[in-house]
Design goal:
Radius of gyration: 22 Å
Largest sheet: 6 strands, parallel
CATH superfamily of the largest domain: Response regulator
Number of helices: 12
Order of helices and strands: HEHEHEHEHEHEHEHEHEHEHEEH
Number of strands: 12
Strand order of the largest sheet: 2-1-3-4-5-11
Shape: elongated
């Protein structure tokens, strides 16, 4: 079939009209910006590795942006998000860690025609916020499944150590752990560790040791991050040396955590597969901008439970492809 120039022009006009409802605002910068967590937190190394790999695989322009540490984390992260929106990029990947300041900004970005993909946490109502999707964990199940493992190890009195009190996602993790222990007839509670102490091993170890000394019946601890988990292990080892049994589990992976789980020093690591969060955080907005396609629901990448049974295999992957299964 042959088209005249006039017919071709008419067809192009029709196609443009059909596709118009799906168009987004013209981006001022052809870049996908990902707002990650503090670079001082080893968890985010795996997220960034996935982000970098997707950038390489798809040959797109991206920018990784993250605060240096947890000091004044809420206002710092909020300002970073505001600056990203002002650039009118091709897309933004952002964690909804602090809903009160972050959710209005997600809505603002969406209203301005910037595709937003929520990563890591706080995205189960992504459609309500105007985002194109959510890639992350089921926070409650991250804690609940870990609590089930802890109960299987005999935990009757557990502590969930929360290192960022302003993050409701971490509270959900703790609640899951608490529910699993209490459903089995035990008890558990959440305790707060000052966020500014993260990264200071001596302060973390001293705090965990104090918690264990204050209540001699505590026989289980879960931490919500790699750095705190590794530091807590040192305190737990000291208590175990006295003959007292204390179970320890953590959220997220790293070589030190995987080695501890493989050796039986930690009972579990509840993984949310951060590499996939970083990778999909580039791939999905790219596919959305190019093809107007996006997943129709939440992409849940956690929990993936690592115990002594499978820790060695996961560790081997992490050593073969460093950082892919958790930061070193």
């Amino acid at each position: 079939m042959k088209f005249s120039k006039l017919g071709a022009l008419a067809l192009a006009t029709v196609m443009a009209a059909v596709s118009a409802p799906f168009a987004t605002a013209q981006a001022q910068e052809d870049v996908i910006i990902m707002l990650g967590g503090p670079s001082s937190d080893p968890f985010w190394g795996a997220v960034q590795q996935g982000f970098d790999q997707a950038t390489k695989d798809y040959g797109v322009k991206t920018q990784w942006t993250a605060p240096a540490d947890f000091n004044d984390i809420v206002p710092v992260y909020t300002k970073m998000f505001e600056a990203a929106i002002a650039r009118k990029p091709a897309a933004i990947a952002v964690g909804n860690f602090f809903p009160e300041p972050t959710e209005p900004l997600i809505k603002q970005a969406a209203a301005e025609g910037i595709p937003v993909i929520i990563i890591n946490s706080g995205g189960f109502k992504y459609q309500e916020l105007g985002a194109i999707g959510f890639i992350g964990e089921d926070s409650y199940q991250m804690g609940y499944q870990g609590g089930k493992v802890a109960v299987g190890k005999g935990v009757k009195n557990g502590l969930c150590i929360n290192q960022i009190a302003a993050n409701p996602v971490l509270e959900q993790r703790c609640q899951g752990y608490i529910d699993a222990v209490t459903e089995a007839g035990g008890k558990a509670k959440m305790v707060i560790l000052a966020s500014e102490d993260i990264g200071n091993s001596q302060k973390v170890q001293a705090a965990v040791s104090a918690m264990l000394m204050q209540d001699q019946t505590i026989d289980g601890i879960v931490t919500l991050g790699v750095a705190v988990g590794v530091d807590a292990l040192e305190s737990v080892k000291q208590v175990r040396a006295t003959g007292r049994a204390v179970d320890l589990g953590t959220m997220d992976l790293g070589n030190a955590v995987l080695e501890a789980v493989a050796a039986g020093e930690m009972s579990f690591a509840s993984d949310q597969q951060p590499f996939l969060q970083g990778y999909y955080g580039v791939m999905i907005p790219l596919m959305y901008n190019k093809y107007k396609m996006a997943p129709s629901g939440v992409i849940s990448v956690g929990p993936y439970m690592v115990t002594q049974e499978n820790a060695a295999a996961v560790l081997e992957v992490n050593k073969t492809i460093p950082g892919s299964r958790g930061a070193n």
